[in-house]
């Protein structure tokens, strides 16, 4: 028997009993307009019990189960940090309201009876809003006080700071493979968190019937194994999950909001969805574009022309970091290494593109 059906039956019983008690005054009121025998009151009670009980059967889930499910769903999207600071704000607000309730109760009625209750509601609400909206600033203050009061060594502080910075890792970042090299350089300061559902998705890809997907999945497994073997890279596979969400990307975004940590990925769609919901994203492709060599118009360099370009007469070469270089009138130098002069640099969604001409 489902919880909704149980709620409907309970609502039917409670509202039916209410209908019995409401049927008597209703019958007396009707008898004043249309006189009838005393036994008619019992009929009015039965009819009232059936009608009101049926109404209770219909609206019981909306008064019990559905509000609870809605509150639970909203709380599941709230981070534990926000809940803690909200509770602290509520306690502080109630303490302030208690300090003000006695002088407010000395006011003449009805102010002395109403204002203390209004003060409790107002200060409780303001405490929650203030502490939740400024939770990051308050957390930094608490961390600064705890660090200044503790006599820990620098190495202990740096280790604790590193563990406190958690980064959720997406499946695409593991399959990409560059995460291993980036983590070894120290540019990812924090503990890499890999949820169990990400690991399950990686295993599903490695068991795919498609040969290319299977190779990508197995490559991701090898990369993950390398990360776990490296003692300098803190990696944790966690069983933390999100209820009520099926898609892996959506679960990652909700989990990142709950843990107040960024997502490491190179998935463009996940990047956009996370940014729209206020979640920080560490995009490997954006990092790769940012560290590419910067060339200015007029600079010269040696370039091997590999193939023809899309336009007539163009030649195409590639720098060591993979940046495409389009050389005007370079088709006659295909297969040769020549000196070129940069004429224009364009930044596109796909990356940086350089235009040049033979020097």
* Highest-level CATH class of the largest domain: Alpha Beta
Taken in chain order, the helices and strands follow as HHHHHHHEHHEHHEHEHEHEEEEEE
Count of individual helical segments: 14
The whole-angstrom Rg is: 34 Å
If strands are numbered along the chain, what order do they take across the biggest sheet?
6-10-11-9-8-7
Describe the sheet with the most strands. 6 strands, mixed
CATH topology (fold) name of the largest domain: Rossmann fold
CATH architecture name of the largest domain: 3-Layer(aba) Sandwich
**CATH-defined superfamily of the largest domain:** 5'-nuclease
Number of domains: 4
User: How would the global form be characterised?
Assistant: elongated
Report the mean per-residue pLDDT as an integer: 81
Give the termini distance in whole angstroms: 82 Å
The share of residues in helices is 55-70%
Count of distinct strands = 11
* Alpha-beta content class: alpha/beta
The low-confidence parts are 151-163
- Work out the strand percent: 15-25%
């Amino acid at each position: 028997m489902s919880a909704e059906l149980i709620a409907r039956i309970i609502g039917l019983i409670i509202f039916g009993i209410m209908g019995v008690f409401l049927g008597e005054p209703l019958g007396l009121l009707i008898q004043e307009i249309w006189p009838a025998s005393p036994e008619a009151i019992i009929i009015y009670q039965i009819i009232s019990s059936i009608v009101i009980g049926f109404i209770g059967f219909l609206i019981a889930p909306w008064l019990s189960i559905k509000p609870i499910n809605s509150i639970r769903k909203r709380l599941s999207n709230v981070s534990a940090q926000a809940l803690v600071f909200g509770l602290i704000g509520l306690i502080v607000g109630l303490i302030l309201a208690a300090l003000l309730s006695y002088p407010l109760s000395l006011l003449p009625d009805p102010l002395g009876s109403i204002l203390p209750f209004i003060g409790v509601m107002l200060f409780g609400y303001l405490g929650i809003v203030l502490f939740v909206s400024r939770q990051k600033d308050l957390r930094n203050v608490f961390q600064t006080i705890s660090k200044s009061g503790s006599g820990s060594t620098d190495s202990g502080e740096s280790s604790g700071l590193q563990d406190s910075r958690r980064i959720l890792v997406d499946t695409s970042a593991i399959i990409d493979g560059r995460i291993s090299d980036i983590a070894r350089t120290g540019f990812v300061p924090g503990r890499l968190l890999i949820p169990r559902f990400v690991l399950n998705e990686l295993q599903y890809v490695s068991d795919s019937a498609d040969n290319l997907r299977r190779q990508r999945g197995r490559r991701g497994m090898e990369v993950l194994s390398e990360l776990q073997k490296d003692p300098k890279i803190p990696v944790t596979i966690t069983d933390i999950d999100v209820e009520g969400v099926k898609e892996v990307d959506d679960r990652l975004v909700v989990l990142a909001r709950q843990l107040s940590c960024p997502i490491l990925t190179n998935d463009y769609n996940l990047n956009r969805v996370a940014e729209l919901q206020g979640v920080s994203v560490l995009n490997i492709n954006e990092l790769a574009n940012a560290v590419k060599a910067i060339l200015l118009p007029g600079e010269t360099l040696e370039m091997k022309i590999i193939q023809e370009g899309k336009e007539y007469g163009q030649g195409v070469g590639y720098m060591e970091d993979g940046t495409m270089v389009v050389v005007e009138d370079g088709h006659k130098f295909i297969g040769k290494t020549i000196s070129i002069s940069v004429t224009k640099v364009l930044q596109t969604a796909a990356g940086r593109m350089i235009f040049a001409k033979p020097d």
